[in-house]
Amino acid sequence: MLDLEKLESFVESLTEGDGAKLRRSIGVGVFLFNKLRDHAPSYLLEALLDFDRLPFEKKKAILEDVKKFLKDYKTLQRSSKRKEVKKKPLKNFLAPLEKLDFLTNAEKRILKSLNLKTILDVLYYFPLRYEDRRPVSLKVAKPGTKAVLKLRVEGVRDLDDERYTAEVICSDGDSKIKLLFRYKRTDFLKAVFRRGKEVVVFGKVKEFQGERYMVHPKLLKEGEFGSVFPLYYIRVKGEAVRIPSRTRHNRIRNAVRKVVERTARYLPEYLPEEILEAYSFPKIDECLERVHIPVGVDVKEMNRFSDPFHRRLIYEDLFLFQTALLLRKFRTKELKAPPVEVDPEGFASEFEKKLEFSLTSAQRRVLIEILEDMRSSSPMNRLLQGDVGSGKTVVAVGATLAAVRGGYQVAVMVPTEILAYQHYHRFKEILSKEGVSVCLLIGSLSPAQKMSARRHIRNGSVHVVVGTHALIQEGVEFRRLGLVIIDEQHRFGVMQRKVLLEKGKGLYPHCLVMSATPIPRTLALSVYGDLDLSIIDELPPGRKGVRTYILSDKEKEKLVRSIREEVSKGNKVYIIYPLIEESESLDLKAATEEYERWKRELPDLNVLLLHGRMSDREKREVMERFREEGDVLVSTTVIEVGIDVPEATLIVVEEAHRFGLSQLHQLRGRVGRSDRVSRCYLVVPEEVMRSGGDALRRLKVLVRTNDGFKVAEEDLKIRGPGELLGVSQSGYFGFNIANLARSYDRSVLLKAREDAKRLLERDPNLEKHKDLRDMILYRYGDRLDLGSVA
């Protein structure tokens, strides 16, 4: 146990007067290290290990840091020794902020502008990072790090320099530092930095030829320094509040701090006791207080989110999400589904004979897994994964035929009209020989065509419907819906999926979800934890991997030669430009300019244009023309996932460094869809080629491998799951702090899933864990449709 009074008194005695006692003392650093080793942050312990070898002035500076730490630690101990309070039910924390009389109206408006509506919203609005605003002496401040310095101004001097126009010379009593500025007029600096004035500045300390300097440091006022400051991500909604940027962080921090100080201690602990003990996690009230009010903490640890408080909150994010997914999975299994009478092995063999090609062993295995599920009166909920071109669609067609033979209808929902047309033709091509009626239902059909399609779906004369969001609109009724197939699952929310599945009239249809993006197993478990997983891990025979090359934008001649060479062999070429998301008009302008340039470059070839401002019908017509007569397709939109033009053998991706790896892998998958040799050129600016930096290292992953799962694993590490799934993490997962791009968070995910599984085996309705259940409903009730759990 630390005796704070004795330690404070000892350190104070060392620094009294001219520090005579410190000059005489031996082994101070080792003594303090041993006393503080289990309590102090690592940066302070490292300094104490070196302490006894340092010059006198540096020793004094380190002892000032020790004093500050002991003062913070005292505050921390006082708060932990406070009287145990009676916890309140979790639902009390769903009270709207308007009811909090300790907040001013201005503070309520600030919090509401951040889309924070309840006490829980504020408590779980975590800082993005932390800034150490505790003043240090110049002797302790390391070059290359940010520091708060208390300085006295010695003078201001104009400079005749290309980079800076003025310098302010300052001292902290022991050392000097220059503050460098670049302004057209420098008169005001002399007023701000008057000779002899004491100032507090914050910025990065730099060093050149032994001289310390800061460039454009922030001048801090009272209240803007003295402790570790949490910095919040500001996502102000609408124009509700206009907060000057200078004071925005302070006002948000103060409002959040008020809520935390007045409410966090009353929040009930909702994680099971055995989990807290197994991982030595701190209690939730302590976590929330330390994360929002960082006293006596190691700032480096806090910024890495590797301190005990952040680690508990990361685990909790993942545990709550996994528990919610498993609750949803168990609830679905309790529903009644239409059983399809089929012999899986026999049907798979019979289906294969109807095809013009053989199924791969992976396709056959996965089809049998799906048919086994469909025989049950519990609903199938299965995710079908496979790399680009692995043949997921033909497996879906097989499952469809089995359902139709069992007397049921099938709905196939896809995100775009181009993909709907393609699936419609593919399903019809195989199934029409079996007497199966297939129809299309998309937004661009005429009212008469839609009415006709709906009538045939309702009376059961149509067996299979392929469509877009139009399938879930009112007025679409099935006679006997038995199977729902959803392609590109991540583009549809849970609630959209639910609307389609509820069209089963008393029975819950079997559900097969297909993901065109290969997703690492860890992430698949996290995102689709309510589904069973099937993976097609084999490509059809004869498929040659796409050869991928990185080219500089200076190698245009080579590019033109390659395009001409492919077209001369009867092949087709895609040229893709990154979408300029900020402006559709810029996007259109870029597309049109590049299209005109390529037409001039290739006057004898049929060059077509596809861009984001076209209607679905226009896009479809362009794709049909490209398939039938085009040579080159220039596009700024990402060519739709699943677009299948077997004659396409070359894809050129301009500005490739601006795409994610998984996105590039999807684009690359638009070629290599036959036995022809295919290539992918990733074109980057010459400076990216020369720099050899991260962007180039990333792209080399695609040169090394055609395996989508390996590409996805790399993309997950680099850019996080939002890029893989086309969604933001916070939006899709409801995570407050977990981030699956971090290795620690990924390592915790499977543990959290196992813990959730064990808990639900013992307490399937969470009746013994009511606060936990309420927290899950608060976080995921609507997002994952957990109404039945409540």
Sequence stretches where pLDDT stays below 50 over 5 or more residues? 237-244
Categorize the overall geometry: globular
The tally of helices reads: 31
**Largest sheet: spatial strand order:** 6-7-4-3-2-5-8
Beta-strand percent range: 15-25%
**SS content category:** alpha/beta
Q: What's the mean pLDDT score?
A: 86
Share of helix among residues? 40-55%
Q: Biggest β-sheet: count, sense, barrel? A: 7 strands, mixed
Radius of gyration: 32 Å
Distance between the termini: 46 Å
Number of strands: 22
Structure, described:
The chain has about 800 residues and is an alpha/beta fold. The protein is built from 31 helices and 22 strands. The strands form four sheets. A seven-stranded mixed beta sheet has the order 6-7-4-3-2-5-8, with no helix packed on it. α20 crosses α30 (about 745-760). The model is unreliable at about 235-245 (pLDDT under 50).
Short description:
By secondary structure, the protein is α/β, with parallel strands linked by helices.
Write the layout of secondary structure elements.
Blueprint: H1 4-15, H2 20-24, H3 28-36, H4 42-50, H5 56-80, H6 105-113, H7 119-123, E1 127-132, E2 146-158, E3 166-171, E4 176-181, H8 187-192, E5 198-204, E6 206-208, E7 211-215, E8 218-219, E9 228-232, H9 245-263, H10 273-279, H11 284-292, H12 299-304, H13 308-333, H14 344-353, H15 361-374, E10 381-386, H16 392-405, E11 409-413, H17 417-431, E12 438-441, H18 447-459, E13 464-467, E14 481-487, H19 494-501, E15 510-515, H20 521-527, E16 532-536, E17 547-552, H21 556-568, E18 572-576, H22 584-601, E19 607-610, H23 616-628, E20 632-635, E21 648-653, H24 661-668, E22 679-684, H25 686-691, H26 694-704, H27 708-719, H28 721-725, H29 729-733, H30 743-762, H31 770-780
Helix pairs in contact: 1-5, 3-4, 6-9, 11-13, 13-30, 13-31, 14-15, 15-16, 16-17, 20-30
